[in-house]
């Protein structure tokens, strides 16, 4: 594996390989768990890349799967060792959505639908501070400051000179009207969105109020896609106490179709810019 692949993606690829070995052996996760005297949920978490995996775990699983090629075993054990390295975000302590950050860091493209707020990758510092403090009223100032810095650091993916993240965002018009921080903060935020939307790899569309019921009525979600064919697309749905990651092809396909409907129901790019510009001027009054 390339040395620049982040630990989240390492775990994910290792989990996919372990699942492939299990399926080749014709065993269920429950059968493997019984053989190793562990819970079935542990096997599932190892295979979906949501849990760190030790070299001992890999050795034990290879034993159950009767992997005879020692080079394969050593390669998988090295992947396990690499997967326990820390990404840049770990320097900020315990970040609730660290798995997502790892995926976003390695993604080639990201499609986001955001119904309530301006999405994180497009936020100004002032807007991010107001959103994080308002959304986490019981968190300490220090923890909120860390989350703001992580959010701003994530934005380097869309401003990078080399291989920037391709970003497509559908913003519900409600997110443009919700006054976060102050009217001045909102004016600067909307101007920032317009500026970033000029980048060739960033597309922003507004889903207007007049659409009424729409394909995203059930809430926010993101679709991450990766350059490496070995990495399947992921649908990410953020929760309050836990997040949901969908990787099964039919789940990803369903959300992809929903996103195409959202794009079709939204204002086009130029109309969206005009709508955002008009609201930015209203905030300046």
From TrEMBL:
Pfam families cross-referenced by the UniProt entry: DUF5753 (PF19054), HTH_31 (PF13560)
Domain HTH cro/C1-type: 18-72
Name of the protein this chain belongs to: Helix-turn-helix transcriptional regulator
Species assigned in the record: Streptomyces prasinosporus
